[in-house]
């Protein structure tokens, strides 16, 4: 596969149009929109499919995975209410696009991917782009306990439930954003950890993600 690592006026203009579309669809956090405007999404696409990079659609990236729809990335990121310096656990690195958006807003990202081919590509591409999260290869459904607790956790695959092990890795006052449902569609769920064993749960809009696979998932 051939990837295009050139970012010129055409690509930058396409991102500006994408940002305006996301604004019209209800994304309000200017930090999120600014991050979408800055991160070159076409870097994650084979050159053959460049014309798909700035459409508001998900797109296959191999290994049965997709790069999420920009609206979905912006929606989940907005729900996290990230503060600069927040320690964020990302379950499902994928191609790394969501990782870059989180880091642009100022998050310190710990990201885990179970597909080795995606992991191997991402650990090369993201540092080349200037993003240096802490990468892990493994089962994201059990989190990364050794670096817990986290201020925020984002899950980028659909789960049957909110894994208890992830809730335990949140700080008090922390938020997890996760799509929960069956393998066809999920509701976006946010959980605020209000005490050691106390949580405030909100069920939001319907989305469709690839399944979260692992010991505490499908």
From TrEMBL:
Which Gene Ontology BP terms does the record give? Answer: methylation
Q: Name one Pfam family in it.
A: PCMT
Enzyme superclass (EC): transferase
Which molecular function term from Gene Ontology is one that the record holds? protein-L-isoaspartate (D-aspartate) O-methyltransferase activity
Q: Which reactions appear under catalytic activity for this entry? A: [protein]-L-isoaspartate + S-adenosyl-L-methionine = [protein]-L-isoaspartate alpha-methyl ester + S-adenosyl-L-homocysteine
**UniProt function note:** Catalyzes the methyl esterification of L-isoaspartyl residues in peptides and proteins that result from spontaneous decomposition of normal L-aspartyl and L-asparaginyl residues. It plays a role in the repair and/or degradation of damaged proteins.
PANTHER family for the chain: PROTEIN-L-ISOASPARTATE O-METHYLTRANSFERASE, PROTEIN-L-ISOASPARTATE(D-ASPARTATE) O-METHYLTRANSFERASE
Query: What protein is this chain from?
Result: Protein-L-isoaspartate O-methyltransferase
């Amino acid at each position: 596969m051939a990837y295009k690592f050139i970012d010129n006026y055409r690509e930058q203009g396409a991102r500006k149009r994408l940002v305006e579309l996301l604004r019209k669809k209800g994304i309000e956090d200017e930090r999120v929109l600014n991050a979408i405007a800055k991160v070159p999404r076409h870097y994650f696409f084979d050159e053959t499919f460049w014309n798909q990079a700035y459409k508001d659609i998900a797109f296959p990236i191999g290994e049965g995975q997709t790069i999420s729809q920009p609206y979905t990335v912006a929606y989940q990121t907005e729900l996290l209410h990230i503060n600069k310096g927040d320690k964020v656990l990302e379950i499902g690195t994928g191609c790394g696009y969501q990782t870059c958006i989180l880091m642009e807003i100022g998050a310190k990202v710990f990201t885990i991917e179970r597909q080795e081919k995606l992991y191997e590509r991402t650990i090369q591409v993201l540092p080349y782009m200037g993003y240096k999260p802490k990468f892990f290869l493994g089962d994201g459904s059990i989190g990364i306990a050794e670096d817990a607790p986290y201020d925020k956790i984002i899950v980028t695959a659909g789960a049957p439930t909110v894994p208890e092990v992830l809730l335990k890795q949140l700080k008090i006052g922390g938020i997890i954003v996760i799509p929960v449902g069956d393998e066809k569609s999920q509701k976006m769920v946010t959980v605020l950890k209000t005490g050691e064993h106390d949580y405030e749960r909100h069920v939001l809009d319907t989305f469709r993600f690839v399944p979260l696979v692992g010991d505490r998932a499908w």
